[in-house]
Design goal:
single chain, 192 residues, alpha/beta, TIM Barrel, nine-stranded mixed beta sheet, two-stranded antiparallel ribbon, 11 strands, binds ligand LARABZUK, EC 5.3.1.24, N-(5'-phosphoribosyl)anthranilate isomerase, aromatic amino acid biosynthesis, isomerase
Length: 192
């Protein structure tokens, strides 16, 4: 789930990664996509998926953006001729400027926490000081955000958008409407 900060727009992510507790089957993803109002972008999230797997989803659902959350190369991200976001799991020695050059045609870099053995949805915050202020691509800030820390995160990093999963859930994979509303208030409180 992403919040674009200039206009408060919520974009749902459909997770196509079997190891995730948030994974959804194609049929359910199709139902969600069909129920959305107009002008909402749908993000499809993949982790090192085979091209045939991504193509099978694209044949069934009109996705607007692909989110690659594994170790996909720039070439792998470009295979579908679609808008994409590349997730980078940030560590002390991560060279984000180099990633921005490699993935220069990405619509954004999604910066997430690094936790060994987990591709994403870790609930962990990473050190926001590791984000260089002059990154040439829009930043979607992720990793352990919640209603209490999102305003501070926005003030410090000044991202284009924020992304949250566990911080607005009752239990893994089940979103909580009250926490989502509190998160939205946190975003608005950042008052950029
Ligand atoms: O959410 C997952 O389970 C997941 C699993 C594997 C790769 C990516 C995954 N989620 C990607 C996201 O964009 C999450 O929103 C992001 O990692 C932040 O999660 P959280 O720290 O729980 O807010």
């Amino acid at each position: 789930m992403h919040w674009l900060l200039r206009r408060t727009v919520v974009t749902p992510s459909e997770v196509f990664y079997r190891s995730s507790p948030r994974n959804i089957e194609l049929q359910r993803a199709r139902e969600i996509a069909a129920a959305l109002p107009p002008f909402i972008s749908i993000v499809g999230l993949f982790v090192d998926a085979a091209p045939s797997e991504v193509e099978a989803v694209l044949a069934e659902i009109r996705l607007d953006v692909l989110q690659f959350h594994g170790d996909e190369s720039p070439e792998a991200c470009r295979l579908y001729g679609m808008s994409y976001m590349k997730a980078i799991r940030v560590r002390k020695d991560t060279n984000l400027l180099q990633y921005a050059t490699q993935y220069h045609d990405a619509r954004a870099l999604l910066l997430d926490a690094y936790l060994p053995g987990m591709a994403g949805g870790t609930g962990q915050v990473f050190d926001w000081d590791l984000v260089p202020p002059q990154l040439p691509l829009p930043v979607v800030l992720a990793g352990g955000l919640n209603p209490d820390n999102v305003a501070e995160a926005i003030r410090q990093v000044r991202p284009y958008a924020v992304d949250v999963s566990g911080g607005v859930e009752q239990t893994k994979g089940i979103k909580d409407a009250g926490k989502i509303a509190a998160f939205m208030r946190g975003v608005q409180n950042a008052a950029l």
